[in-house]
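May I ask you to review the protein record following this short note?
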Amino acid sequence: MRDQLRVLRHATAAAWVQYSAYHTWRTWAFTWLSRLLIQACFYALIGRMLGSADQVEFLLIGNVVAVMAIDATVVVLLTVTERHLGTLALMVAAPASHLVTYLGRGLPNLASGIAASTIAFLALPPLFDVPVPWPQALVVPLMIAVVGASCYCYGACVASLVLGFPSARWVALNLSYLTLMTFCGVNVPISFWPDWLGALTSVLPMAHGLGAIRAFLDGGTWSAVLGGLGLEVCVGAAWFAVAAYGFRRMVAKGRADGTIEFGV
């Protein structure tokens, strides 16, 4: 466990150096964050055009949480890029599970997503006259972090499936977070979809966590809120287990056929 944590720390530190070389606080705030805030505002304005305060609240809260999923699923690009650059063999040689190394590489992006979603939650509801129960709502960023971790595990699973096809990484990334935004109650209730599709949605991240956040903001019981967050944790753990199996299988195949040292 000590080696696992040490490798995770170093992988995260290396990823942060890479991330901070790409983004300064100015570029992050005025390009990436502003883009995410504008996206959330765009959907909230649709609700205002419909003339419904309930629609404004539904669309705004859903998209405030969804902006986090975009950053969380960027792990698809980061892990596949390691394969594309031919550095996978070095990661597998680390004195820890290659899964730990991979996941550590994307943690700065997960933190970025949680920060962006939290800023959006603090800044946008007053702009659209959406009522938020203060100071109780200060726990919402913690709920967003739970949803973010679940989405991150989902993104890692997708990455493990496309490691052998680096050219498909952008398609996989876009389909990953668009699937969440479409079916997990961001812009339309899950009940909008057919029953069989709603049942499939229950295995996707964000569906239960977003439902818990909505219930909390609507004054729901703590049992309902904590139940939703508990299901979100279970869903994230399941995706993590599938990701671990996928990475292990890919590495075993690379060792067997001698392709582990080559980007493909």
Summary: Residues 2-257 form one domain.
